[in-house]
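pinging the channel bc i need a second pair of eyes. not urgent but kinda urgent?? the chain im working w is below, pasted from the shared doc
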Amino acid sequence: MRMLRALAVPAAALLLASGLTQVTAATQAVAASGAAAVVQAADTDTDDGDTGTLTNPTMATVVAPAAMSTAGYSYTSPVDHCILYGYEIGATCYQWVGDDQWVVDGIANGWAAVVHVQTNYGKDRYCQALPSADGWGKCNYDHVEGKCVRWQMYELKDGDTRNFTGWSAWYGTQYGYPC
């Protein structure tokens, strides 16, 4: 399955990168200046329980930030400061401040796009996208800070699953950095 990956920073600096390295205009500027790191906002939530199952995921909620288009599918990040992974079946974007997992269905084929979010402390969470015509939706989780999450997507219809993607890399729950 084809995959596009990007680290979302303010929309003007969004850059899709391939391979294992994620590069943005902001990180290039920091490297050129000799600074040690890009300062990101920290997340300070506590953990909540597992939500949904493989065949009965939690439905994403409709949210329409002013800066995002809610119509149709796009490989563009729905909000600033989230980690975007795009696949043929849809896309997901992890926003570490607030622990929001955004998801969008990429194909209007009767199958629902679902993102499976896994933590490195034993939690599994499932978030089903809105119907593809309704655009981006999100599930709000409350991950333990200082831990890591990863995700994969798949399609679901009437309890049947298909088209599982590979797992993303692990990302920190507090600052969104790779673990």
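so The first strand starts at residue 3 and ends at 7. and The mean pLDDT is 73. — does that match what u expected or am i reading it wrong
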